Amino acid sequence: MQPAKNIFSYKQFWAHRFGPAPFLPMSREEMDALGWDVCDIILVTGDAYIDHPSFGMAIVGRLLAAQGFRVGIIAQPDWSSPAAFRSLGEPGLFFGVTAGNMDSMVNRYTADRRLRHNDSYTPNGEGGRRPDRSVIVYAQRCREAFPKVPIVIGGIEASLRRVAHYDYWSDKVRRSILVDSKADLLVYGNAERAIVEIAHRTAKGQRPRDMGDIRGTALVLDTIPDGTDLPAVRLPAFEQVRDDPVLYAQTSRLLHLESNPGNARALVQRHGDKDVWLNPPPIPLTTAELDGVFALPYARAPHPAYGEANIPAWEMIRFSVNIMRGCFGGCSFCSITEHEGRIVQNRSEESILREIEQVRDKVKGFTGNISDLGGPTANMYRMACKDAAVQAVCRRWSCVYPKICRMLGTDHEPLIALYRKARAVSGVKKIFIASGVRYDLAMRSPAYVRELVTHHVGGYLKVAPEHTEPGPLARMMKPGIDHYERFARLFERCAREAGKEFYLIPYFIAAHPGTTDQDMLNLALWLKRHDLRPDQVQTFLPSPMALATAMYHSGRDPLCPAQSEVFIAKGLRQRRLHKAFLRYHDAENWPLLREALKAMGRADLIGPGKRHLVPVQKEWGTRAAPPKFPGINKKKRGYGGG
């Protein structure tokens, strides 16, 4: 893997002389106050504008501003006409369009395809402030507003829909979002390298639609130019994968095998009479570059235009610090690896400690508690392949499944050292770890678990075994439940030694591909045996491009060479039944569970005893006072504790 050009080594654009803006402008009045007659780049986003490095549009905006460009923000515009997209005038270089920190369909609809009435990325949590398929709608309105201005799309919605993809909400395979949006260029994954190069080349007069050589981008071509020196893999055409679910699964396999920046080849997929060309993934940022991204002059607050409005997503992260990017777990249902890559990118200790000090000094309402020090996982910081040459040729999708790779460095000492230094920062009372702990890695370091339990757990710790049964776990690419149980015992021991009473909060998924009714019953019985009553449960939601989504659509496992068949719980009733098994203690689920248990020949689990899963049907009076199950501790929500 060849070194990439440092993103901070470009000669600044001439407009750098205006200096940094306290907030990137959202109005012509703010532009006038900055002395700007025009924005060079305008970013359109489905989220409220919060100037903080946890929000993609803030990172991209601040990074482009650091390159010398004048960047404006149009946040959550009225999409009913192009008027709102003209509010900052015509951009000098291009529009950058994103749905926001979430795919707009995931943001707007539940796993049961029900409309959500709230939106965490909107002032006061108000729902309905972004359209379905926001990237497509916003790009169309930008084109209507200024037909000649190039459009670059990016963010997680564009990233995960960059090729033909199964769309759960329409229950069909849709074309690449690049084709439907008619954008000039698509940026996928972490966008820093690509967007900086695009901006500087556009400033020199090149059109984004002609930039066919930038890693981490995709564009539409009439034909593949002769003499192209990049090796490329031709994927089955959109029309083929639309009509053949098994071929869709095979295409998903090809896509995921070509994900390592060290050896990935370009991908080409025909859509009608056009080709969608995907360049190889971006080269991960170095620690120095990532430090530079987090050192940009963020205001670390929502834009003043929102006044005192509560923005739930901001409230959740305002006192947290991100220490890394990427995840080598490769869980089939998760999109982190597809978007951020499986090579973990780390910040330096100095950068992280400086940000903690900034939170202490700049963020309103800080009381001394850092709410999280983590990332996609809590404990992959500075973990990497032991041999860069091996990493460059590796085609494994996961470094930890079916077992932890012997070439993976799993040393937790750098993370322990970081925790200790973070705790020593003046003014910090407590640092919590809210990101989920990858317990199969943590078990390799009892010292880390001891450090975590002694200093960084606030009553409970989140972990995600996801299931108990081998079938579903194999399709999820997660370790067996015995790993969780061993970790739980280690957690309990460390809690006792520290004189603490803590609990593990395990997360589970219902109706994941490969999960039968019997699997869910076994999981419910496991929960009952361990006196667990999960409050937060989720039904599998097929997000675009995920491996598990390919399983859901095709009934095949893409990463299994034999393309083995996979059982899929698809009907709404069956999906609700699987979720009901997770909440076996909820009286609302008892009628459905009784019916299912009888159909499964397990009516012996219906009754009033400790061994029974649900009570017999009787009139219990008010719903507020259901019968108690013998032996269940109502306070015990997790596994573990003093």
Describe the model.
The protein is of the alpha/beta class. Among the domains are: 14-214, 3-Layer(aba) Sandwich (Rossmann fold), CATH 3.40.50.280; 457-642, Transcription Regulator spoIIAA. The chain is built from 23 helices and 22 strands. It has a 9-stranded mixed β-sheet with strand order 3-1-4-5-8-9-12-11-10, with helices on both faces. Strand 11 and strand 12 form a beta hairpin. The protein is globular, with a radius of gyration of 25 Å. The model is unreliable at 620-642 (pLDDT under 50).
| CATH superfamily (homologous) name of the domain at 14-214 | Cobalamin-binding domain
CATH topology of the domain at 14-214, which one?
Answer: Rossmann fold
Helix run count: 23
Tally of extended strands? Answer: 22
Strand order of the largest sheet: 3-1-4-5-8-9-12-11-10
Approximately how much helix is present in the residues? 25-40%
Q: Major sheet, described briefly? A: 9 strands, mixed
Can you give keywords for this protein?
globular, alpha/beta, 22 strands, 642 residues, 32% helix, Transcription Regulator spoIIAA
List the helices and strands and how they pair.
Blueprint: H1 28-34, E1 41-45, E2 50-51, H2 56-66, E3 71-75, E4 94-98, H3 104-108, H4 134-145, E5 151-153, H5 155-159, E6 165-167, E7 172-174, H6 177-181, E8 185-187, H7 192-203, E9 217-221, E10 232-235, H8 238-243, H9 245-257, E11 266-271, E12 274-278, H10 287-294, E13 301-302, H11 312-317, E14 320-322, E15 324-325, H12 336-340, E16 345-346, H13 349-362, E17 369-370, E18 372-374, H14 388-393, H15 413-423, E19 430-431, H16 439-442, H17 446-455, E20 460-466, H18 470-476, H19 481-497, E21 503-510, H20 517-529, E22 538-539, H21 547-554, H22 572-582, H23 590-599
Parallel strand pairs: 1-3, 1-4, 4-5, 5-8, 10-11, 14-18, 17-19, 20-21, 21-22
Antiparallel strand pairs: 2-13, 6-7, 8-9, 9-12, 11-12, 15-16
Helix pairs in contact: 2-7, 9-21, 15-17, 17-19, 20-22
